[in-house]
Amino acid sequence: MESVEHRSGFVAVVGRPNVGKSTLVNRIMGTELSIVTSKAQTTRHRISAIYTVPEAQMILLDTPGLHEAAGGLNRSLVATAMRSLEDADGVLIMVVPGEEIHEQDLRIVDLVKASKSPSVLAINKIDTIRHELLLPMMDAYAGLHTYEAIVPISALSGSGVDDLVRAILKMLPEGPPLFPEDDVSDLPVRFFVAEIIREQIITMTGQEIPYKTTVVVENFKRRSRNILIQADIHVEKESQKKIVVGKRGAMVKRIGTAARTKIEEFLESPVRLELFVKVTPNWTRNERLLREFGY
Predict the structure, then answer these.
(1) What is the rounded CA–CA span in Å between residue 241 and residue 208?
(2) Cα separation of 267 and 276, whole Å?
(3) What backbone phi and psi angles, to 5 degrees, belong to 271?
(4) E strands within 147-289?
(5) Collapsing DSSP states into helix, strand and coil, what is residue 236?
(6) Which pLDDT band, with edges at 50, 70 and 90, does 40 fall under?
(7) In what order do the strands lie in the sheet with 149-152?
(8) What's 179's DSSP letter?
């Protein structure tokens, strides 16, 4: 890290949906802070992941994918990503290989240029292309903007991630740590509990349900033998509720069992998890409800 005593700052992780932002943040942190599934647009909030080493501290802002916004929830997701870009000391742009640079990637680079923040470009999923195609791709991106570094990586396997971390830390401004060294996020425990439950809903249900579902933790109480967690699963239609509940409650029981196991690992404590499925019509298009649910 040269002769600088200490660097610190916020880094916005931006890119199209499903380019591997959450997978990378989890890889860097060594723990699951962000939802990772095969379905696009699973990150809805700005996840703050605090990475600390002796010489630096970076706060990674894992943002929802930047895309064309339509509808109240989608507009909220894009607004969240844009706020992260404005608040950041540096930007990590994530892209994936393709024959040509994607139109949305061009727009994202333009947004980063307009922010005037230093940036690093990560080309993810390099294990999906032939090695000889990588250099021309790096040259193409280098022609769009002046980055601090362009780093090919595989967030899934970890290849190149250490080089990427070094490049990100190098672009941060000088400064003391912004959070205690043991902190891994500035978000409350309830948030991560709700995200773990939502992850299981996404994993176990069909295409429509994940995008019309949100989870609100209504009660979180530490007791002598366990932690009591009561959470509401909100859907928009009665037909969606039937899918989430399942025949004789089988689906919601599966969701609860899988979520409880992960929550117990996360909290390192026994948990009693109670889930309630509620129909809340048009919540994804209701500004008041979106605010109430934390969007």
Answers:
(1) 12
(2) 21
(3) -130, 140
(4) 149-152, 214-222, 227-235, 271-279
(5) coil
(6) very low
(7) 47-53, 56-62, 7-15, 90-95, 119-123, 149-152
(8) S
d(CA 226, CA 262): 15
- Compute the distance between CA of residue 236 and CA of residue 245 in angstroms, rounded to an integer: 14
Q: What residue type is assigned to position 293 of the chain?
A: F
Share of the chain above pLDDT 70, in %: 83
Instruction: Output the pTM of the full model.
Output: 0.68
pLDDT tens for 51-87 read 999 999 999 987 765 544 444 455 555 555 566 677 7
Residue in the structure block whose two tokens are 């379905």: 39
41 within 8 A of 64, measured Cβ to Cβ = yes
In the chain, the largest separation of any two C-alpha atoms, in whole Å, equals: 64
Question: Which CA distances in Å does 290 have to 19, 75, 217, 279?
Answer: 26, 11, 15, 15
**pLDDT tier at 37 (50, 70, 90 boundaries)?**
very low
Token pair 């950041």 is at which residue?
A: 88
Distance between CA atoms of residues 211 and 41, nearest Å: 8
Rounded Cα–Cα distance for residues 60 and 258 (Å)? 27
Residue in the structure block whose two tokens are 């290849």: 159
Is pLDDT of 36 > 60? no
* Residues in a beta bridge with 248: none
Task: Tell me the two tokens of residue 16.
Answer: 């199209």
**Residue-level pLDDT at 41:** 47
